[in-house]
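Self-study notes.
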Amino acid sequence: MKAKEQALSHEYLIDVLEYDSETGLFIWKKPVARCIKSGMVAGALNKNGYLFIKVGKYIYRAHRLAWFYFYGEWPPVDSYQIDHIDGNRLNNSIRNLRLVTNAKNAKNHSLYKHNTSGVSGVCFCTLNGKWKASIVLNQKHVHLGYYNKFEDAVAARKQAEKEHGFTCRE
């Protein structure tokens, strides 16, 4: 457990914040700082789209606070992460949060910003003029083949995702 997690008791969290497990929102119960008033929605977005909340002297990710608030214990940090099932980093309702291994969470990665095909693991190879399909399994790139048609490369990628337990978010 991290030092900042040890510094926050479940009792104090419940005392200063109200968590709505259906909406995932945190509301301040008490004015714990000059800029905070009772009834205000807690949190601010970071550049990666996660909601952060400062409680005491530490800043916490809202989804981790939701887990702690609801279950009364912090999720293990060594080999597990909290995954947003629907991929929406702002949806911190408890039914949208699940504890998964680091490997499982890596299978849920959203589309990278530099992706130009619109499909993870599919790109156009200018050297041979074909669509390339690939997937990352156990931290290794696996080549799925070259295809004349974009749709065939997408189908190969989707089939590999299904076979290897990737989360479908369509």
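Second protein, same conventions, sequence then structure:
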Amino acid sequence: MDTVIDKKGEDILLLDIREQTVFCDYFLFCSAENERQLKALAEGLIEKAKKEAGWLSRGMEGAVESGWVLLDFGDLIVHIFSPEQRAYYNLEDLWHEARVVVRVA
């Protein structure tokens, strides 16, 4: 979470989805204002997860240019969106039954 804040990620939301699914435990959503920031967030999260927790990203989906990057850390899946893509896909609404762990607006 600190990395997202340090890299100026916005509208941060951590959901506990253990009651809704078996493929992971948590979703972390955040927004980036531009492609450069989206790339910095993705790279920063991958680096910090490896360095501090020994977590390796199982994969990265999407592309910075598309406005949506997904990082798979196993129990945690991180969604980094442009504001437009986040509003369009509205995943928070899809997972509305999940418990909100942290929200930083």
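Instructor comment on the second fold: Residues 12 and 104 are 5 Å apart (CA to CA).
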